[in-house]
Specification:
Chain A is built from 14 helices and 24 strands. Chain A is an alpha+beta fold and about 575 residues long. The mean pLDDT of chain B is about 95. Chain B has about 450 residues and is α/β, with parallel strands linked by helices. The chains are: A alpha+beta (about 575), B alpha/beta (about 450).
Chain lengths: ~575, ~450
Amino acid sequence: MPEDASKLVNINIDGQDYKVPAGMNMVDAASYCGVEIPHYCYHPKLTVAGNCRMCLVEMGTPMRDRSTGEPVLDENGVQKIGWMPKPAIACASNATPGLHIRTNSDLTKACRTGVMEFLLVNHPLDCPICDQAGECRLQEFATDYGRGYSRFVEEKNVKPKRTVLGPRVILDDERCILCSRCVRFTEEIDENPVLGFTQRGSHSTLTCYPGQELDSNYSLNTVDICPVGALTSTDFRFKMRVWFLKPVNSICTESSAGVNTEVWSREGKIYRITPRRNDAVNDTWMADSGRALYKQVEAESRMKLPRISGNQVSLAEAIERAAELIKSGPTAYVASGKLSVEEQFLLGKLAKVKPGSVYFVDHSREGDSRLISEDATPNLRGGLVTGLISELPGERLDALADALKAGEVKTVVSFGENLINAGIGPELLKKTDLVYLGTHRNDTTDLARVLIPTLTVFEKAGSFINRQFRLQRFLQAVPGLAGLLPDVVVLTRILGDISGDKTPDPSMTELWAEIAQAIPALKDLSFAKIGDSGVELDGSAYDNLPFHEKPGWHYEPKLEPATTSGSSF
Amino acid sequence: MIQKLPVQERRIVYKHVDEEGYTNDIECYLKNGGYEVMKKAYQAQPEDLRQEVLNSGLKGRGGAGFPTGMKWKFVDHKSGKPIYLICNADESEPGTFKDRQLIYQDPHQLIEGMMISAFANNCAQAFIYIRGEFINGARILENAIEEARAKNFLGDDVLGSGYSCEITVCRGAGAYICGEETGLIESLEGKRGYPRVKPPYFPAVLGLYQCPTIVNNVETLCQVKHVIDMGGDEFAKIGVKGDSGTHIWGVSGHVQRPGYYEIEAGACTFGDLLHDFCGGPLPGRQFKALIPGGSSTKVLKWGEKFKVKHPNDGQEYEWGVEDIPLDAISIGLCGTFLGTGGSIVMDDSTDMLEALANLNAFYGHESCGQCTPCREGSLWLEKLSGRMTSGKARPEDVPLLKDIADQVAGRTICAHGEAVAWPVQSAVPKFQDEYLDKISKQASGQRYNPAGYPLI
Ligand SMILES: Cc1cc2nc3c(=O)[nH]c(=O)nc-3n(C[C@H](O)[C@H](O)[C@H](O)COP(=O)(O)O)c2cc1C
Ligand code: SF4
Ligand code: SF4
Ligand code: FES
């Protein structure tokens, strides 16, 4: 419970007194007190529609004399409660001092049974083939509050079963319970109203406005918030029963917004990514494009085999050769905000053991003023906090190219950066001892002396510092490709080879013990302490840097943003 | 207290309805003293006019019977936002046809009433939301507005008073639910006519365009003119305590002379209305059931007895349907409502299950579909009673009808839920024997014909 008691009010649920934050929506307030008020249409991030009526409860307020305004007391001197004659919806009330509700009275129970029965009379009950089954509010509340049998013998309404609303969303109108969450989302959050109802009464049908499509890059949020299986993701549709899927907390790498996600997998295969609520970062939302990123795990261009000069070798051989090249040098390192804090930390160590310049590559592009920021990497600020860089990077590596030409650098270690894109031509690269650690093939990878395939964000753990200087962690959702190791292990082994001081592969806990000691901004922290909702760091030391990010959801730049380069990512 | 008065109409708002030679143009209205009350009203202070209406005890004539002066009192005058006045001319409740005569035959009375009400409430703009089917009605009103504007009875600086107000006519698209005041407001804003959730969207505070708004029925606004004319206290003397003024009874169904009758509240009984005004039942028939005030009010059954203790005189009465005095208080004591005064009379040739199925079909069709109990309950009732009347009824369907209705009433966003439920909740206990009789006859292959009249 929050410490600040001045903002708490007393309410009473089923005869129990509780303290809750003043003004909290009663559905949330009850849940805060551990009491479930079943609901469909209420969503904490949308306006109140009050249409499903599932949250009906008995409600009463302390009685006051109408003429004098004085409290009306009972024989014990306690203020009487005036119970409303009709049940009221909890979602349209906020916590006020002395508010009483009854969530387990006969009337409340009868209301729920009634609403459940009504919601099911025209429902197709096609749970066996419905994607939502297993995470469906209709199933859950029918079990908890339903009658258990049907009294409905009439014919059910017939509605369109597969309406394509847009490129990524398909609607089954028969399953729709008309809660209007999706409609409100498109109006209030996406500000792109394309959904609405046609027809009337129980024949009401959700549809797109004529000539419009639900094609916004946020369209899949409607699928998330649909309490039933009416809105389905074209990508996920009919692919997997959700109860087989295991969710793992992760962070979206699409941009420096650091959207909190859940990655859902079964037997090492990812089936979908959904947003995870974080009211300080992304609320309950996520862009569609970020959800598709799991496809990079099995992408055709994914690199699977370590190579030396194009020939397949074992990972141990590749690591050994890489260490030799780095050691012989002179060496430079190229990285970016794509690396995790832990990886950046180890890169910092490497650059101390074998000194060489560390270059960062800028990956800025157009943002969407929401959850896709102008920075296409998740962890540029990690580079600042770990001390790898002290200024914002440019897009081109001209200084490195000059150093290579001048023979001042012989070995370049690229951490997933396409150096050709960054202005180091193929001819120059061919003359360079290039060590490349990365996940996917590109122009540069073909020219690497040593190629060490690494793991995607889904196959490893770590942390990123987002545009708000919020440190957030991601966990491993699926096992890495056979024969490959997490980047932090590869880096530790290279470090060991070079220094001759071989240490065991570190766990995140061990790594963080070291990080917390070495980096003042991260002192007192541990991987566990980052927790599921992240930790806000003090970024004031960097207030004077002209970051590329423009205002977005939960983000205001401290300075006027630098113009974005517009290069694609 | 209830004395038998010589039965006569007392026409106030209907004074000129069907009057020989009376036309709906402004010249005729002016010849009959039109706009004089308004001129007088504009000399007064708005708050004094509001006080007169409060004193008059006038109750809304749109069905809910909410005291008009009280409704006006709730209006937020401090917000700094414009205040809107809306005339509800959606008249869609089955059995109701009283506003129609006012609009078609005496539109200037409405405009005068509105301009007085708008002035009294400092309204910046007024609207008339008229049901889509009243195409001619909308034309008549628009024409009347132009006539009134030409004479500066509305528009800018009305009659040099410094007060300006426009009246705009807006046609509905044929949905009953747009008569519900917040559904109406949404529709007026150009959206689907979805009634709003109250709280927080009470029109008096957050109405049209989130501004304070007054919604009043056509007849209510016409009555306001007479309240201001007579003075609130004088008006309150008409009718009975708790229900002042007159009511227009629009009688339809199985009577000799269906029609509309304006009668002082409490001045006579349903018996007087149906026999003396309406000429009694059709030849050879007997009254069986009465829906007193529009289709959503609870049905009454001949033969029922109502034991009541009247709050006005403290006396106890035992009334049959025909003894109930025609005022909101007395009718309320009998478990139903005066509503809109649209009385639907059914005689013994009526198959009560068919009658119920007809109403269920209406409400199933008109539910806006927003909230679960009304949306699903109303269509279920429609489907269920539809099946029951097509020869496939089961005895257990009868209690099921009532169970469904019980799950609707009191649990919805707007009073359409009650409109769905009340006919069923009242009819099933009263007519279930007849329903069961029909079901058993049908089950044994017999034709069902309650009173044996030739089927037409
Ligand atoms: C389903 C429904 C339909 C309604 N239809 C009408 C109507 O057609 N005309 C009307 O004046 N009031 C109608 N009302 C009542 C209005 O909501 C509102 O109470 C009325 O317009 C207020 O006017 P009054 O105070 O002058 O009676 C309806 C109410 C409901 C619940
Ligand atoms: S599609 Fe889903 S979210 Fe949209 S109204 Fe229907 S049930 Fe609600
Ligand atoms: S009660 Fe019926 S008409 Fe009223 S809002 Fe609910 S569904 Fe619509
Ligand atoms: S959650 Fe309150 S009405 Fe739907």
